[in-house]
Amino acid sequence: MDAPVIGFSKLSKTEKVNWLVDTYFDGDIIAHDTITRYWNQDQKLQELHDGFSENTITNYYLPFGLAPNFLIDGKLVTIPMAIEESSVVAAASKAAKFWLERGGFKTTIKSTIKSGQVHIMYKGLHNEMDAFYAFAKATYYNLSSP
C-alpha cells in the first residue's frame, strides 16, 4: 500500500474486495475468487452477516464441533465449539467423560447483576416496540432473579 486509503467505509462490499485484491494481490483472480467463495448464497442471510461488523468483505468459517457428556448441575449437556483445533474438542470431550464419572461440574451463582447492551433494528410501529420492550424487560428480570 503506497498511500492511505480514503473513504474505504463508503465503498461497496464489491469495491472493498476489488481494492484489497488490487492493492495486495496484484489483481489476482484466484485471490478474488477465494474471497467471494465464502459468501452465503442466501442474500438475506449474507446481508445479516455483513451487518455484524464494519467493512466486511467475506465470511470466515470455522469447523463447528460438539463436546457431549458434560454433567453440569445434574443436567447432561452438549457444548458446541467453533474452533479449528480438533484437539481442543477432543480434550473437552475427554474431560467431560472424566468428570461425568466423578459427579460432573457444579456451579454457584455469585451475582445476577450484569451490565450489557441490546441493539435492536425495528422498522415497525414505535408503540409496538415500546410494548414489546416493557414485556421483555419484565420477563428477563423475572427469569434472572435468584
UniProtKB/TrEMBL annotation:
InterPro entries listed in its UniProt record: HMG_CoA_Rdtase, HMG_CoA_Rdtase_cat_sf, HMG_CoA_Rdtase_sub-bd_dom_sf
GO annotation, biological process: coenzyme A metabolic process
Transmembrane spans: none
Enzyme class: oxidoreductase
Enzyme Commission designation: 1.1.1.34
Signal peptide start and end residues: none
GO MF assignments: hydroxymethylglutaryl-CoA reductase (NADPH) activity
Key words of the record: Oxidoreductase
PANTHER family for the chain: 3-HYDROXY-3-METHYLGLUTARYL-COENZYME A REDUCTASE (PTHR10572)
Protein name (record): Hydroxymethylglutaryl-CoA reductase
Organism, scientific name: Nonlabens ulvanivorans
